[in-house]
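Here is one chain, start to finish.
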Amino acid sequence: MRLVEFSWPVRVYYEDTDAGGIVYYANYLKFCERARTEWLRAAGVEQDVWLAQGIGFVVRHVALDLQAPARFNDTLTVTVEPKRIRRASIECQQQVFNAAGELLCVADVKAACVNLHTMKPVAIPGPILEVIGRGS
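Its structure:
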């Protein structure tokens, strides 16, 4: 299976903004997290099933490049583009666009697959790899 880009719509709520009415920078991380969850769900991966088995994904590294502000009530599109899938981790680039198509934020995210009891890395289960594809 080839790696493909996925997108998810997000609405900016009042709670997402600071006193100036622009999105507080940390909320871009939440938007990206939601999009990655929906990317997995669209691929048929329900994380609660794996959580019940003690397997989960945790963010190990993230880099944000904020390029323009989003504001209260904006509609955004958050993309997920898997760049590399390794034995125990997934690296994605995510982008956030406003309704006019302006790039607002770029996030490079590395998520590790871990045993939730030991918090040690484990191989991504085969059924997950089958549906999300393999990177180089």
